[in-house]
Amino acid sequence: MELELTAVLRRVPEGYIASVEELPGANTQGETLEEARANLKEAVTLVLEANRALAAEDASEAEVIREPLRVCTRPVNPSSVS
Asked: Does residue 37 belong to any structural domain of this protein?
């Protein structure tokens, strides 16, 4: 499964700080842009795995239906966000 998210990379004196707009908690850093990008992919994977594990724990005693969810979004115009 492939999911497209928005990486935000900010230059700081120590290198780069990276996060994902759509996924709170997926944050990291790297000395180089390439390292920050690689670390961010790993952070996203870890956040998704942790969220799945927490959801499974929470639903362990309930009747739960799990199914694929496809979502189409449109880009947000940054100038329209206040």
From this structure: yes
Q: Are 18 and 7 in contact (CB under 8 A)?
A: yes
**What total number of domains does the chain contain?**
1
Establish if 51 belongs to a structural domain.
yes
The average pLDDT across 63-74 equals: 78
In the numeric block, the tokens 């497209």 are attached to: 4
Q: What is the 3-state secondary structure (H, E, C) of the chain?
A: CCCCCCEEEEEECCEEEEEECCCCCCEEEECCHHHHHHHHHHHHHHHHHHHHHHHHHHCCCCCCCCCCCCCCCCCCCHHHCC
Which residues span the domain enclosing 20? 7-62
Is residue 42 one of the residues assigned to a domain? Answer: yes
Residue-wise pLDDT tens digits, 12-28:
999 999 999 999 999 99
